[in-house]
């Protein structure tokens, strides 16, 4: 069973950046097979990883809705979706990518979420690590896109409001019965080792995994539309994620 890291946070905190950096760390350090899951309908993880996204779950479901005859007569709809997902997996150097995509029409989110959960239960067994980049905010948790994880990794910006939002996400995950073995917090774009936030973090009872300092080189990559793998190995953000990943995985 793969070690599953579910990454959550409010919009703008940099959760997709953190997800991509952890995936790249696992790949670079050859820690084992990795499944990257873009569970955010506004899919960006492929871009951050420097690859072209193939067919998403939403694409598959939409194609079936438009053409009901596409499913072979000797195959159930669920088995056909699994077959298409296997074909649509991005098989890259050191990781595979599965994308939820952007569903269309009323009720589509629920169906695609169900498909994603069912497929994930089967795929997880084939990988050493699973990194899930969840949708920003709380809605994905209320839809239970993520049902279980070894670590619920909360990403906040360098603000008290961001820490409060991370606590609300953690509380909701507990309230609706999402199973996770542990929860940890990353403060992104931090200043002075997020000293100004430590009292607040301690008061709400979230374990601080680490702080990632602001890094101008990350902004430069974004402007030039280049993937995070192009960051210099001595970049400030790489130094931060190295410490965080080693502590998170204890490997």
Detailed description of the structure:
The protein contains 10 helices and 8 strands. The protein starts with a strand and ends with a helix. It is 43% helix and 21% strand. It is an alpha/beta fold and 251 residues long. An 8-stranded mixed β-sheet has the order 3-4-2-5-1-6-7-8, sandwiched between helices. The mean pLDDT is 85. α1 (15-28) packs across α10. The protein has one domain (3-249): Rossmann fold, CATH 3.40.50.
Properties at a glance:
251 residues, Rossmann fold, globular
Summarize this, please?
The protein has 251 residues and is an alpha/beta fold. The protein has helices at residues 15-28, 45-49, 57-66, 77-88, 108-123, 139-142, 160-175, 198-204, 216-224, 236-249; strands at residues 3-8, 34-39, 90-91, 96-99, 129-134, 148-156, 179-190, 207-213.
**Approximately how much helix is present in the residues?**
40-55%
Tally the helices: 10
The oligomeric state of the chains shown is single chain
Rg of Cα set: 18 Å
Total number of beta strands: 8
**Elements, N to C (H/E):** EHEHHHEEHEHEHEHEHH
Hey, roughly how much beta strand do the residues contain? 15-25%
List the helices and strands and how they pair.
Elements: E1 3-8, H1 15-28, E2 34-39, H2 45-49, H3 57-66, H4 77-88, E3 90-91, E4 96-99, H5 108-123, E5 129-134, H6 139-142, E6 148-156, H7 160-175, E7 179-190, H8 198-204, E8 207-213, H9 216-224, H10 236-249
Parallel strand pairs: 1-5, 1-6, 2-4, 2-5, 6-7, 7-8
Antiparallel strand pairs: 3-4
């Amino acid at each position: 069973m793969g070690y599953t890291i579910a990454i959550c946070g409010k919009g703008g905190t940099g959760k997709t950046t953190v997800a991509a950096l952890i995936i790249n760390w696992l790949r670079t350090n050859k820690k084992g097979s990795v499944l990257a899951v873009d569970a955010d309908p506004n899919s960006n993880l492929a871009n951050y990883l420097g690859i072209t996204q193939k067919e998403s779950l939403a694409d598959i479901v939409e194609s079936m809705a438009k053409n009901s005859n596409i499913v072979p007569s000797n195959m159930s709809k669920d088995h056909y979706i699994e077959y298409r997902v296997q074909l649509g997996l991005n098989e890259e150097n050191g990781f595979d990518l599965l994308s939820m995509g952007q569903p269309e029409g009323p009720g589509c989110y629920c169906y695609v979420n169900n498909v994603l959960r069912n497929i994930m239960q089967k795929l997880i067994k084939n990988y050493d690590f699973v990194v899930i980049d969840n949708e920003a905010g709380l809605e994905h948790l209320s839809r239970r896109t993520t049902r279980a994880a070894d670590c619920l990794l909360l990403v906040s910006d360098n603000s008290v409001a961001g820490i409060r939002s991370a606590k609300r996400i953690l509380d909701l995950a507990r309230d609706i019965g999402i199973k996770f073995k542990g929860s940890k917090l990353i403060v992104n774009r931090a200043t002075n080792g997020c000293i100004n936030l430590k009292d607040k973090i301690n008061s709400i009872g979230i374990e601080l995994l680490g702080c990632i300092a602001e890094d101008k080189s990350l902004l430069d990559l974004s402007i030039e539309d280049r993937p995070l793998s192009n960051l210099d190995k001595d970049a400030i953000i790489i130094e931060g994620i190295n410490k965080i990943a080693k502590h998170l995985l204890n490997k």
